[in-house]
Design brief:
heterotrimer, A alpha/beta (319), B alpha/beta (263), C mainly alpha (470), B: 263 residues, alpha/beta, Rossmann fold, 2 domains, 13 strands, C: 470 residues, mainly alpha, 0% strand, disordered C terminus
Chain lengths: 319, 263, 470
Amino acid sequence: MNGILVIAEHRRGALNPATLEAVAAAVDLKQARAQPVAVAVIARNPDDFLAEVNVAGVDEIIRVAVPTDGFQSDVYEAAVAALAAARQPAVILLAHTVDTWGYAAAVAVRGGFGCATDVYAMRYEGDALVATRAAYKEKLGMELDFPGRQTVLLTLRGNVFKPIEEPGNAAVSSLEAPAVAARTTHLGYIEPEQAGDVDISQAEYMLSIGRGVGDEDNVEQFKELADALGFTLGCSRPIADNGWLPKSRQVGQSGKTVVNCKIYIAIGISGSVQHMAGMKHVPNIIAINKDAEASIFSIARYGVVGDMFEIAKELRNHC
Amino acid sequence: MKILVPVKQVAVLDEDFELRDDGLDADPDFIDHESNEWDDYSYETALQIMEAHSGVEVVPMTVGPEEAEESLRRCLAKGGERAVRVWDDALAGAGPATIAKLIAAVARREGADMVFAGTLSADHSFAMTGICVAAELAWPHVAVVTHLEYEPGAAKATVQRELEGGLVEKLTVDCPAVLTIQLGINQPRYASLRGVKQAKEKPVDELTPADLGVSGEDLAASACFRLRRMFKPAKGQAELIEGTAAEQAARLATIIKELKGAA
Amino acid sequence: MMPVDALARVVANAVQRADPFLAAAAYAAAGEQDRGRLEPILLASYRLKRQFAEAPFAPPEVLRRLAAEPDRKIRLKVARHPATPPEVLRQLAGEGACVETLEAVARHRNAPTEVLEGMPWREHPGVRDALCSNPRAPLALLRALAECAPLAALKGIANSPNADAGLLARLWESPDPYLRAQVAAHRNCPPAIMEAAERDPEPAVRRMLAANPAASMQTLLGLLGDEAAEVRAAAVQGASVPAEELSDLAADPSSQVRRTEARRAALPAAVVERLACDPDAWVRRWLGRNRCVQEPVLARLAADAELEVRRAVSRNPGCTPALLDRLAADPAAWVRAGVALRPDIPAGALARLSAEEDPDVASAIGRNPNTAREVLLRIAASGNADLRRAVILNRAAPREVLRTLMEDPYPLNRVMLTEHPALAGEDLEILTEDPDPHVRFAALRALIRRGRPERPAAAADDSSSTTNPE
């Protein structure tokens, strides 16, 4: 068993940039232990993506032509299994994405591979590959190895490995994909709704206020700030209970989960279990609270201890 | 027609946790347990199908020690007549592929027609178990399901799965199938007080791996990784923004701008 | 205290059921001997001690007991708990306290002054910095701290209500504009520094000065002509700005200035007229809420094309019954909900809105003290947990309506129900048997509170709620 195989990911004619991060991780690993890096492109027209994945350090690009355009779990599982059988790689690397959530573990189980997901670091200790990933919502890291496994399949966390920009000169080869009767059928895509003003479950940027706001008239100050920042205003339960904001703006248990949110500014919200249920998954949480011990800080990426009204007033001057 | 819903009692770490002496996990003194949030949604999905059609049975199951029975009772309080709990002390620390092997064995034993799992669990977040179950059963599968149209007994179900950037794919999947259910697919209910009382009387079948025909060797062979150690990561918790309100606001404005640029 | 036999029953029940949540509630009211019986349940495991030491609802008596635990991490959690009483903090900061505990006490708003004064801050920079940001730190301590505190901590001192003119004058010497801005914003800022701040090249300094409630009319007049809109906006809020200045500012090119002006109290009629026609909706929105705005301007704003302006009018205390009647027929539910929330809602409007199903309107009706009993019963039977909770939060809801909510499936609703004054003691006793531990705890706490003649109003004060999470 030798070599690293990266599976490229694409959708609707565009390469998922996370593929290039996986390629970069493979090239890193090649430095740690000399072995060839191959990138497989499974697509109706693999040639469409060849140039993009041909970066410095890649030794081989394998074209796997399949009859479907988009991701299809049975097709991908069969193709990766065939690639593994043909190339006998020691490591298979994929991006940790919605598509790989849908098939990577199945490939590993059926191939008898070692497997770990959402890996953010890899190294060799002697002959053993060691993968590091997080546990308990990032409070701990865990180190895994794969004794007795000839092949190890890993999915890699995004925004960790820096893509290689320098072009490469990989050899291009082809592999015939096995014919499979796919048991899922793609019907179409539904475009995301415009981040609506009212549907907070779709909003990307949220500014939410809690009990600390104190008074109904003060709510307006934060609504104005949210407007100026281009954020959607949300709230914790007591604000909606008081009738100060519509129920449709309530985040949390009995309210809504901010599924698509990328930045969440929590102002004057102490962080009850009920509220955090609706937003704790957001990658960038900014918490502003006067109480340094407020539980919201335990899930925040940025914490501001201070007077929420002063900070909001000042922040308004930067919009 | 039977829907099997595997659920998990997840561990939540206290802020001031310590590592266990063997370094393989957190000290149990600092671990609280709760039901996995995703499983509320998968169980609700199953209950709604049960309530909309006659002849549908929903069976919650878990692979976990006695304390994990609480998660099953919590499900039974909302609906369903019986549950299954699989355990053996040798399973402590078992990974997703091993757990999946046991879930698949229960699915066979129960003659399940569909399996609805949570997309991931809140503690270790491998997002693997459901798909591993599908691989064990050789069933079709769809992950991160945010919408489901399914008539019990139908040859296909129509599902939507949510992709990056809010894009949604609509597809059909042949049944029987394993679906991993995403948060937000529905509004999970709360159990009524009567339901909570009744759940105490409902049977929970307790099985060992051996009862399911899974040997110790099978279990060992199914582990797809070995845990070497756990450690406290170097990067701290929240970055604290200090200074006067004006200064904090100025820094926040920069951070927001940067995050928006990156997002 | 509650009657002795009732308390004994409560303790016996907690002990018999080995229920740590009932034990925690009973512990607060129990005597020495009963506490001895409750402690083995309350402190049965490390996990329980940890959970209570960080539970927002933990009673001070339980925190006091936990402060005596030998485990360092438990004591640290108690020191960080906002409800920890002063004497417990004094004890925690005593001999043998670890640095983290000292820091937590130094930051704590309940820490007694003499404990703050006695802290070993020269040895521990973390303790020093925590003291600098504690508003209870006395002037003498602040002076000593200012001698050696780093810049970040000096900003805490500049924000302290106890900083005097002399101390502020020293901090003003700093080259850091944010520190100087904080000094300019301080009520105790000496006049000479205010004068200098008015000409400071940093807009942040001038802006903070403009927001200083102690700034003189002269200073404000100067700042109203400032080139930076944010400085003018801050100055326009000053109470001493004369009327003729306000009318000029109503034509300020910056909407930020006009929006701020629309919020301020005591606007002359001509300014109100002008702002009411402002093209910026936020100006009209702020004006709609402004208590100094009256008919007929209010009526005009109530017909504004922007629904949030109409909503603002519906929340203005000066809104007349006639206007409320009109707004109760507004096409936007959010505007009607604003009317439905008012205790002074006209009877006709109340009757009409009582039939509505929109969740915001129905929730407001559920909370309204004038709502008819049958309507409350209907809302209490809703499938929507938020609507049922509106009835629970209605202080005028009668017991017979509340009793229908004792088996509300949403546990938080039952927790909040325990705080309703109309619920009878026997209802609360039933809730102490609830399957949810937080409901049992809250129910027993409420029972105990009622037994205390010296605090009869506790149940009626929403802010005293200890079990109420967000």
